[in-house]
Amino acid sequence: MQHQNIEEAVLIGAGNVASHLGMALVGQGIRVVELYNRTPARGRELATRLGAAFIPAIGELTRSADLYIFTVADAAIAPLAALLRLDDKLVVHTSGTMEMELLSQVSDSFGVFYPLQTFSTSRTAGFRGIPVCLEANTTMARLQLEEVARKLTDNVYFIDSDQRRLLHVAAVFASNFTNFMNTVAEELLGSEGITFELLKPLIAQTAENVKHGHPFHFQTGPAFRGDEQVLSSHRELLKDHPGYLEIYDVISRNIIQYKTENGKL
User: Fold this and answer.
1) DSSP H/E element including 141
2) Are 50 and 32 in contact (CB under 8 A)?
């Protein structure tokens, strides 16, 4: 099936996803020709880095690009989409939770381009290994998105909206919650002047383990062992941190329950 190659893109938003995705597109020869952002200073800065023109009003964006990408917060997609009409141009958003139909009034060709990674301004995440999850409303749009995705990464998946929402929840557990647990650990150690560096080899090994089998194969700790003496001593240490104690108890109970129901897989 013949389809139009994606040569020029427009970014709507200038946050972390826009920055990393924009640089990846440019690196693979897809020109980012224009960029809109609610905050002009940040928008202009990223537009300059991408070699794009900054457009201060979304309604003034060019209608001649091949791909339009909403990289804004979930709550901003619908209000901004209501201001844009692009006929048959391919329009996508990068949200892990919002349905693609939010863009149905913008164009007859729409979908989702969801890179499953945590992005920050302080670290560069190479796109080649990042999973990109695609959804599209037509076969043509799907082919176009797949062509773009495979230029950026070796990991391309077709995930519908229900699957993507569940994937996003799983990612919160795997990444956001894990990162906050490390934040808690650092705070607890810091209260006694102990360096967080002591935990970094353990954190690295834990991340390495999940590459080699079911995560619960590698589960250890007092809850897994059913060691009530250690659990009680930990609770005593956390009595001045009721929020953290609550987290400790909830997770410990769930580990015990999971082991009871599943055994060590």
Assistant:
1) helix 139-152
2) yes
Query: Residue 125 — very low, low, confident or very high, per pLDDT cuts 50/70/90?
Result: low
Residue 265, pLDDT above cutoff 80: no
Q: Mean pLDDT of all residues in the chain? A: 94
Distance of CA 28 to the CA centre of its chain: 21
Alpha-carbon distances, residue 251 vs 24, 175, 179, 224, 264 (angstroms):
38, 16, 15, 11, 17
51's CB contacts (< 8 A; 6+ apart) are 26, 31, 32
Ordered by where they begin, the domains of the chain are 8-159 (3.40.50.720), 164-262 (1.10.1040.20)
pTM of the model: 0.89
CB 29 within 8 A of CB 169: no
